[in-house]
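User: Could you check the structure of this?
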Amino acid sequence: MATTWTGPVDSTRTWVVLPTYNEAGNLEPIARAILEALPSATLLIVDDASPDGTGALADRLSEADPRVRVLHRPGKEGLGRAYRHGFRVALDGGAGIVVQMDADFSHDPASLPSLVAPIAAGTADVVIGSRYAAGGKVLDWGPMRRLISRGGSVFARFVLDLAPHDLTGGFKAWRGSTLAAVPFEGVHAGGYVFQIEMTYRASRAGARVAEVPITFADRRVGTSKMSRRIIFEAFTVVLALRWEELRGGARPVPTEIGAEQPD
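Assistant: Sure, the predicted structure tokens are below.
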């Protein structure tokens, strides 16, 4: 049965969940930019035991600024698991709004106020920072990368009958109560498909999903973690979600196919 969430949310209870793996070159400037954009927010860095020292750097940032918190995980287990763990910590900490974003500057921290504004105003439950809504754009990508990203969104949008134009992006804001209602234990843990499935499950539960246009730039430091395995995972899970829905079931998607972290 669909659930309806209404009313404004106190934006001072915003948590930004920032998964990291080998982001030592990006972490300090992205943390500073996030807290400049949302001065009253709590920044939760979720590090998967990065071998480049990202976790130790996160600890130093936390010691210097009480708004920064760090969740250390034992190893690289996939973007979906990192987000699920971080979401739970944020919700347990009383978050009214939870933001998810990448640590590599592909998601511009300057867009954060416009991302959380519809939830704070009570007009949306999930807000997607959209590359493909009117006014959105992508910089520095070649034709194949554009095709994979845009094609994945179009495919998922058609198969799952969803309204948002950007279903594969990871720059989102959630109303805390909406996020808490998503059954995390039934959500696939992979990276690329995690973004699709979370929006799908929230939408089916009755959440109001909005999009705000963003400019997406390729990562500043490091290399993309996209792979053919992640793309195959997304394709198969989207079909499995639709198949289960057509059969009238609500069982979790079976099998953890992949555990890599894409951009």
